[in-house]
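ugh ok fine here u go
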Amino acid sequence: MEQSSVVRSIWIAAPRERVWDAITDSQQLQQWWGDYWEISAVEVGATVKFGEPEDFMLAAVSVVDPPREFGIQWPPQEQYHMIDITTTFLLDEENNGTRITVTETGFDALPDDIRQKRYDQTASGYETVLKDLKELVEGKSGESTSS
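structure:
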């Protein structure tokens, strides 16, 4: 079965505002994602840098609807991918916490011989980073006790 969108979701025991901060703040993104992130501003059109600081991917913030939806548009970049990719983070209140659903689209533009491999890699990656996001947010969902 050919896949054209990766969709992964996880429930986090924290309010949407806390999860929103973790997905839009560059320093927090780096903690749970594990790569360099820089978001110049949380506004549509702002620049996003991702990857290695010496060789990062450039993208643009495409959706800002706090604390519900955050989107990033990744244009084709020769060293990484030759397709447009859109990543959307959707935050829904659920059971006194937040369900975050990440959707990444654009795979339908890939050649048939590599589409499934790329889909599988991306799906696996999101499963890992969402678990790390959950651990970070739930570990810091309370107020700090240090002065």
